[in-house]
Amino acid sequence: MLTGFLAMRMETEAEAFLQAFHARHTGATAQVMRDGRTQDGLSSYELLAQSVQPSPAGEPVTVVDLACGDGYLLELLRDRGPRDARLIGIDMSAEELAAARQRLGPGEAELLLERAQRLPLPDNSVDYLLCHMALMLMDPVEEVVREIDRVLKPGGRFSAVLGGDSPEGSAYAAFSQVLREMVTRRQAPPLSLGDPRTLSASGLRTLFGPASGLAGRVEVDEMVLHLDGSPEQVRGFLRANYWSALLTSEEWEAVDREVALHLTGLSRGDGTVPFPFGLRRISYECR
Does a structural domain hold residue 160? Predict the structure, then answer.
């Protein structure tokens, strides 16, 4: 059941943009990322799901998916996670939560419409809090970090995957460069999304460290997710990017033409394009 719809309001222009994006592109994140694999053969969703373990005492664990989208990770947790786990999905998109309800069916998870800066959960109530490709969009992120620390039980864990540094010369690195050049040529910069500290390992350690008043243990890992596919599949991934949506249609067409030329040069004999995408995973254990 969706709760908090009437009470919740978009606090920033960026949040209004993200809500509108997900109304138009519901389920896009899972669609473009679910088939990617790390060197260990795991998807970015499985990287998060594997961190959830049964309670040593045999008690049900509470698992929250923050910015749960269409429920893909919740479905994975339901099918592969600890039995009797209490699953909670939180998102600020009513459309994504409707898709999650349809994916999961009735009674499989609690789905809550709310902002990450105001989690509708009691103190010390969550064993695992997961977040897939969304923390870097949340602002003010300090409020999100405080809420994460507040709701986690002592010993509870927060795990998130975010975009990292893609290999030099890769398709995504080329796309990022073309995008930066397009933005530089603009007289007015596009809408800013998220906090720059979430875009580096050192920034994440600062946000989840003593400087923020947190006393837990922080780990940050770097890895690469392989999203190889046809040129059209790769361009589809890029079109689903938030930063692309901030451009005008004319600007995006110009970026797309340059990227298409780059993909032609990367194509293999079978027509596929190697598409390594940098990932960064942060793990925080509450004390």
Answer: yes
Neighbours of 190 (CB within 10 A): 16
Counted domains in the chain: 1
| DSSP states of 25-43 | STTHHHHHHTT-B-TTS--
Range name among 75-84, 133-142, 257-266 with the lowest pLDDT average: 257-266
Outline where the chain has alpha helix (H).
13-24, 28-33, 44-49, 72-80, 94-104, 141-151, 171-185, 201-207, 231-239, 242-245, 249-266
Domain of residue 55, CATH code: 3.40.50.150
Residue 156 belongs to a domain: yes
What's the rounded mean pLDDT across residues 19-35?
94
Residue 90 lies inside a defined structural domain of this protein: yes
Q: Could you read off the pLDDT of 236-259 as tens digits, one per residue? A: 888 888 877 888 888 888 888 888
Alpha carbons 81 and 53: distance in angstroms, whole number: 7
Q: What is d(CA 195, CA 269) in angstroms, rounded to the nearest whole number? A: 41
Q: Helices (H), strands (E): how many in the chain? A: 11, 7
